[in-house]
Amino acid sequence: MRKSLNLWLVCPDFMIRVGFTSWLWYCAAIGLLGLFGGRMVIAQDMQKAKAVIDTLCGPGFHGRGFVNEGDRKAARYLRGQFEEIGLLPLGEDYFQTFTLAVNTFPGQVVLQVGKSRLQPGTDFIANAISRGGKGKAQLLPLDTAIFSQPEAQTQFLKQNLKRKALLLPAFAFERMIELPQALIDKIYSCPVVIAQKEQKLVAALSQKALSPPYFEVLQSQLDAILQAQPASKINIKYRLDAQLVPDYETQNVIGYLPGTQAKEQYFVVSAHYDHLGQMGEGVYFPGANDNASGIAMLLELARHYARPENRPPFSLVFMAFSAEEIGLLGSLHYVKNPLFPLEQINFLVNLDLVGTGDEGAMVVNGGVLQEAFERLHRLNETHQYLPKLARRGLAANSDHYFFQEAGFRPFSSTPWGGFRRIMMSLTAPKHFHSLNLRVCLAYYAIL
């Protein structure tokens, strides 16, 4: 039976270039100090934190993805940071390697609609499941009656889509599951697909290449073109260089600090360092929010607890996961191939994303761990860290998830207000309570 653990909370005044507006409250302190008790330690190193984020978001790391070895360059940087801090490898090296399949866009990504050449990354993106291709095609709006009228479905199946660029309305992708498989196959038999997006472009990664070149384009960009002339009179030019890599080797980066007393009892701090990488030759996704911020926090925690006067009695493990963006594959690999028995983990905190939470938070799994949620709620009511807390069930939204599936129970929250957010996933064995909190990037939490 494990002894109870004290909690230390480190709270740097941590304002970075992704646009944080305040550090008004510390939700990790609310939940963890309330559940376990502990003490608070204040530490600040703004310049190092900014330097980490600037470095990881720089063009030389190519978005920390799987084009131009962006992930490997980031991993080597983190290994250097771990060595400088004084973390020890759990194995022969800091790297835990594994392979994955990934669809990449390493070459040209070009889309011209009429006379307007659109800008990749701002006007349009390539859907992650796209195969490569190039050519010219005539724009053909999808008859939306196929979602409700059998006659329209029959006519669409008969339609000749050769040299056509099928133009999908903004709602089509979400509703495509309603269509018979024959219609879905017909859509993807088109040489190229143009899907309109109403508000924003959201890139992703995929392990498969399932469709023809599939471009997602902001509707605002297309509206001006379509107002000038009918869609049927508009031609497009496109090129998408895609490469499906079946066995790409990537790596988790893992180091630890031995405890002063209970060396075989572990507290884990994790954050994924990968992002969406590069799309074409000139576009990359920096990923300051997601998740250079979490890595900066992880490194600041490591620096603090590497100092002899701050070393806790139990061992601290720092896990920087790869391949989170493509399905939590780095943390899944670790759970399947742990470097020490998972049963020796007393607690896990996962750091992911940044935000304000100025309208409150939704606590995931708060409906399951009701006693823990009520404690969290009472503490928040007393100290007014957040305007509001609500509860819901489980979530599989970051690297805490597979630890949870291996026998740990997470307690997580999502902030309301603004697009900026941070997710802090705290996972413990079933006889511990745990939290997964999205709050302001102004706190660090650790046991």
Characterize the structure shown.
The chain has 447 residues and is α/β, with parallel strands linked by helices. It folds into two domains: 298 residues, Zn peptidases (Aminopeptidase), CATH 3.40.630.10; 133 residues, 3-Layer(bba) Sandwich (Glucose Oxidase, domain 1). It is 25% helix and 30% strand. It has eleven helices and 22 strands. The strands form four sheets. Strands 3, 12, 13, 14, 15, 18, 20 and 21 form an eight-stranded mixed beta sheet that branches. It has an eight-stranded mixed beta sheet with strand order 5-4-11-7-8-9-10-6. It has a three-stranded mixed beta sheet with strand order 2-1-22, with helices on both faces. The protein is elongated and about 75 Å long. The two termini are 18 Å apart.
Strand and helix map with partners:
Elements: E1 7-10, H1 27-36, E2 38-41, H2 46-56, H3 70-85, E3 95-104, E4 109-113, E5 116-117, E6 124-126, E7 133-141, H4 150-158, E8 164-168, H5 172-175, H6 181-187, E9 192-197, E10 214-218, H7 219-228, E11 235-240, E12 243-257, E13 262-272, H8 288-306, E14 314-321, H9 329-336, E15 345-355, E16 360-364, H10 370-383, E17 389-392, H11 401-405, E18 408-410, E19 412-416, E20 421-429, E21 436-437, E22 444-446
Parallel strand pairs: 1-2, 7-8, 8-9, 9-10, 13-14, 13-15, 16-17
Antiparallel strand pairs: 1-22, 3-12, 4-5, 4-11, 6-10, 7-11, 12-14, 15-20, 16-19, 18-20, 20-21
Helix pairs in contact: 1-10, 2-8
